[in-house]
Design a protein that fits this description.
12% strand; six-stranded antiparallel β-sheet; 10 strands; 2 domains; two-stranded antiparallel ribbon; elongated; alpha+beta
Length: 360
């Protein structure tokens, strides 16, 4: 997940055109963020960027520095936090300010520097007397941006110290977001381990290639035959080396197909909105004659994963678009597949199965 914090390339940026207000508190004036102006992306790239992004790209400011940050923090005697209407507060409490300062220990390794495309939340305004001396913003609980202080966002050595401080003093939303992100990351890791465990052993030497260099998103593009014309395992197949590995490990076509169906049925769960690395077994199945797949599954006692993979494949977009051969799937098998899916807790999968398997 280290790549998540690299500079993000965007072809367009949607921004609200109205003024955004950052309310301070009682004795501070309301600071208004200027209405965004839009500029062409650099180097002739298509799209637009707002003034904030333009200023960042043109900035010649220093790299993040703990020494510079500490020198500024020594002057702070008041902190104002703005996380929206329900998460605004100010404090002059010396102990709270001391704890806040301790939370801002950054990583100074240039390899960790980056720039998030979002504004950051919440915003933190630091004062010395009546003068605002710094404007920080929190980036997803693990980094901070010092607006006008340095160019790059800086990773925190321990982001939890800042999120806990904010939560304890009246701005708990960031902590909830961080906890939700952690939970989703754990779920994704569990789903990936499950999927890799179901991967045919003969394909494991290609694991890194299958996942891709950047965590395995959108690696494989659609492949397969034209509608109504079953594709075959041609030597020119994009996946010929995978087929070669399967042919060496599985001596029968049925066993190869069942291995792919097991793999395809071992995904994260959703048939829509899933990690794109899950597409590989489906793309390979599309290259198999539909009659061969039916021969492999009919009259067999299929495992839960094989039933899931078969239902997912026959009800899926790739099969319908590439083959358009659902008419070849016997109604008895469609009923079995539909019954299997209807036992799941995923309503979207159920609706997709019902739309495909129109049997009573």
């Amino acid at each position: 997940m280290k790549a998540l914090y690299s500079i993000i390339a965007a072809s367009f940026l949607l921004m609200a055109s109205s003024l955004t207000v950052f309310a301070d508190t009682k004795d501070n004036k309301i600071a208004k963020k200027p209405e965004p102006a839009f500029y062409p992306l650099p180097n002739g790239q298509p799209g637009l960027m707002d003034k904030k992004m333009k200023d960042f790209l043109e900035s010649r400011a220093d790299n993040p520095s703990q020494q510079k940050l500490d020198a500024m923090l020594q002057q702070v005697d008041k902190i104002t936090v703005d996380g929206g209407p329900k998460e605004r507060f100010s404090t002059k409490d010396a102990e709270k300010i001391k704890t806040f300062k301790k939370s801002l220990q950054i990583v100074e390794d240039p390899k960790t520097f980056g720039h998030c495309m979002c504004w950051g939340d919440p915003q933190i305004y630091l004062y010395s007397g009546k003068k605002q001396i710094a404007h920080l913003s929190c980036q997803h609980g693990f980094a901070i941006r010092w607006n006008d202080g340095w160019k790059w966002d800086a990773r925190l050595k321990d982001g939890s110290l800042l999120t806990e401080w904010l939560s304890a003093n009246g701005a708990p939303r960031l902590k909830r977001y961080v906890e939700d992100d952690r939970k989703r990351a754990e779920e994704s890791e569990h789903a990936l381990k499950k999927w890799l465990a179901a991967m045919p052993p003969s394909l494991t030497p290609y694991t890194k290639e299958v996942l891709g260099e950047e965590a395995g998103w959108n690696v494989f593009m659609p492949a397969g035959g034209k509608a109504g014309k079953p594709a075959t395992q041609e030597p020119s197949s994009k996946y010929s080396k995978y087929w070669k590995a399967l042919n060496a490990a599985y001596k029968g076509k049925d066993s190869q197909i069942l291995a792919l169906l097991t793999w395809f049925g071992s995904g994260a769960g959703p048939w829509s909105g899933f990690p794109s690395y899950e597409e590989l077994p489906e793309r390979m199945l599309v290259e198999i004659d539909t009659k061969d797949i039916l021969h492999a599954v009919q009259g067999k006692s299929l495992s839960k994963e094989q039933l899931e993979g078969t239902a997912r494949y026959f009800a899926g977009w790739s099969f319908c678009q590439s083959k358009n051969e659902l008419r070849l799937v016997p109604s008895t098998l469609q009923k079995v597949l539909l019954a299997h899916v209807e036992k799941s807790a995923n309503q979207d999968n159920i609706e997709r199965a019902r739309a495909a398997f129109k049997v009573k």
